[in-house]
Specification:
The structure is a single chain. This protein is α/β, with parallel strands linked by helices. It has 15 helices and 21 strands. Helix 5 packs parallel to helix 6 (235-246). The longest helix is centred in the first third of the chain and has 17 residues, at 175-191.
Length: 558
């Protein structure tokens, strides 16, 4: 198959509220992002995915959009956004906007008009239904807690929301809604945006029967995610977006897609798929034991490794996955996949090596490149995230003590990834001259960009080498386009795989010892070392000795 323009790129997600504040109001902004473009270019980044910067009441931190064609004043102006696009182009970089079209904000003019006149045009932009015996239309539980139904002000009707009640779902069955969205998407593409990350996109299709689901929580509610049809019947909606917006402009698109069946993976992310690429979230789910955070189970290395390999097998050489370790909705990877006692330069870089050399396009999240860890929140009131507060209450209702519920949130809260980016060990971690909207991570004096750069063993420095290796013309046919084959799966704590070029003429072996103890493997083939996070390792006769969390990338003879 032909190669797309974006396949050789490296993507980096910015959470704008927490990246860099240029004016001292405690909130990161677009001029702040512009001031750090050389830092990102030097790292090796090409695609900049920026979380929502549209006007919003910020109930869900911008994922509740009140105006799709404007910029929230806290982030700057439309002129600032246009300057960002221009400065990115001057560096041969691209802006990827967040596209949130499963729902909008209850402050959006469409919804305000629906409230004013439910029988009018805009009432049909949402899902409005009568209740049952004075209760909501069904027992579905929203992603952020409570019923999926809220009574429309001044009406006997209820409106549907998958997430918070301030995020009413848009009715994609309505052709006028779809046309509004397509017009808006093309407006942004015409401005010079190179593509979109599509938030919760498989949720746009609903089971219009809205039947009760099997209860899975106290009170007889059912998790809404179990009741959405996911990929069933969604094709006309996504085809319209692709044919009217994405394909004519060769836009890059990445779908936040969960639960798509293996036999339909190519339909969503193959060469002719709805999206350029899909996020692989399967490995993020390996600690889930139920719908609530307090039900999470300990990290299981073998399960995690096997899930990653299964995702790669499912994708094959046709679907180009987007590989992540963390994002704005996940806790920090250094605190998820590593024991606190194992945290070090070696363990963090081993984790990076495993992820960034998989087949697909790497997505980094701000601060990942310096090894940021989860924060520490002393009280539930210290969290800003509405989902975290709901999960805390759910844990207490399930019988956990307040201390246990708080510990669960500290492990899993989305706010772990949303603390301000630590640029220095100075006041407020160099993020702002004012009061940051969310407290900086308490370890900012130890883990920050300036301190990392001064260390002989720089995490960011290793990331640069890793990304440079992926982009090296001598190895692109292997590390970007080549196939992946698991290796040494009989070893309990070894994460290893081969990458082989499309022609079969080149081969690379990635070896990561994922534990603090030494591991010895038998390997008789001749090889050369392309990258090693220790700088040296031992080979005696036909055995390789890997130190604790040692990661090596070997050039093998075919």
């Amino acid at each position: 198959m032909g190669h797309a323009w974006w396949q050789e790129k490296i993507a980096y997600q910015i959470y704008p509220k927490s990246f860099c504040d240029s004016n001292g109001d405690g909130i990161g902004d677009l001029p702040g992002i512009c001031s750090k473009l050389d830092y990102l270019k030097d790292l090796g980044v090409d695609l900049l995915w920026v979380s929502p910067v549209y006007p919003s009441p910020m109930v869900d931190q911008g994922y509740d959009i009140a105006d799709y064609r404007a910029i929230a004043p806290c982030f700057g102006t439309m002129g600032d956004l246009e300057r960002l696009i221009q400065e990115l182009k001057e560096r041969d970089m691209h802006l990827i906007m967040d596209l949130v079209v499963n729902h909008c904000s209850s402050q959006h003019p469409w919804f305000q008009e629906a409230v004013r006149n439910p029988e009018g045009k805009y009432g049909k932009y949402f899902y409005l239904k009568e209740g049952k015996d004075g209760q909501p239309p069904n027992n579905w539980r929203a992603e952020f807690g409570g019923s999926c139904w809220e009574r429309l002000p001044g009406s006997s009707l209820y409106y549907f929301h998958t997430f918070a009640k301030e995020q009413p779902d848009l009715n994609w069955e309505n052709p006028e809604v779809r046309q509004e969205i397509c017009d808006m998407v093309n407006w942004w593409l015409d401005k010079g945006v190179s593509g979109f990350r599509l938030d919760a996109i498989v949720n746009i299709k609903k089971d219009l029967r809205f039947l009760d689901g099997p209860p899975d929580a106290p009170g007889g509610t059912c998790d809404v995610s179990k009741m959405l049809p996911q990929d069933a019947g969604i094709a006309p909606f996504l085809n319209q977006l692709k044919q009217v917006c994405f394909a004519p402009r060769d836009a890059f698109t990445v779908g936040e897609v969960c639960g798509v069946r293996q036999d339909r993976l190519r339909e969503f992310g193959g060469p002719e798929g709805y999206f350029s690429t899909l996020f692989d979230f399967d490995h993020c789910m390996t600690t889930y034991a139920g719908p609530f955070w307090h039900q999470r189970k300990p990290f299981d290395f073998k399960l995690w490794r096997g899930t990653v390999f299964q995702s790669q097998k499912n994708a094959g050489t046709e679907v180009f996955l987007s590989n992540i370790l963390e994002n704005h909705d996940q806790p920090r990877c250094a605190s998820t996949y590593l024991l606190e006692t194992d945290y070090s330069f070696y363990s963090v870089t081993a984790l990076a090596t495993v992820s960034l050399l998989l087949r697909g396009i790497p997505f980094l999240y701000q601060g990942q490149e310096i090894g940021m860890r989860n924060s520490r929140f002393a009280r539930i009131e210290d969290f800003d995230d509405l989902s975290t507060r709901d999960q805390y209450q759910a844990a207490v209702k399930a019988g956990l003590t307040p201390e246990q519920a708080l510990a669960s949130c500290n492990r899993t809260s989305r706010d772990n990834a949303r603390t301000p980016m630590p640029w220095s060990g100075g006041e407020n971690a160099g993020f702002t001259s004012g009061t940051p909207w969310l407290p900086v991570n308490p370890d900012y004096q130890e883990i920050n960009v300036e301190a990392d750069a001064m260390r002989p063993q720089s995490v960011r420095g290793y990331y640069k080498k890793l990304l440079a290796l992926r982009k090296d013309p001598a190895w692109m046919d292997v590390l970007i386009y080549g196939a992946l084959q698991p290796a040494f799966q009989e070893a309990d704590r070894l994460f290893a795989y081969y990458r082989t070029s499309e022609t079969g003429g080149k081969r690379i072996l990635v070896l990561c010892n994922f534990c603090p103890e030494e591991t010895v493997i038998s390997f008789a083939q001749p090889f050369g070392v392309l990258l090693d996070n220790y700088g040296s390792f031992e080979r005696q006769n036909e055995q390789i000795r890997l130190k604790g969390y040692q990661a090596v990338v070997l050039r093998c003879n075919v």
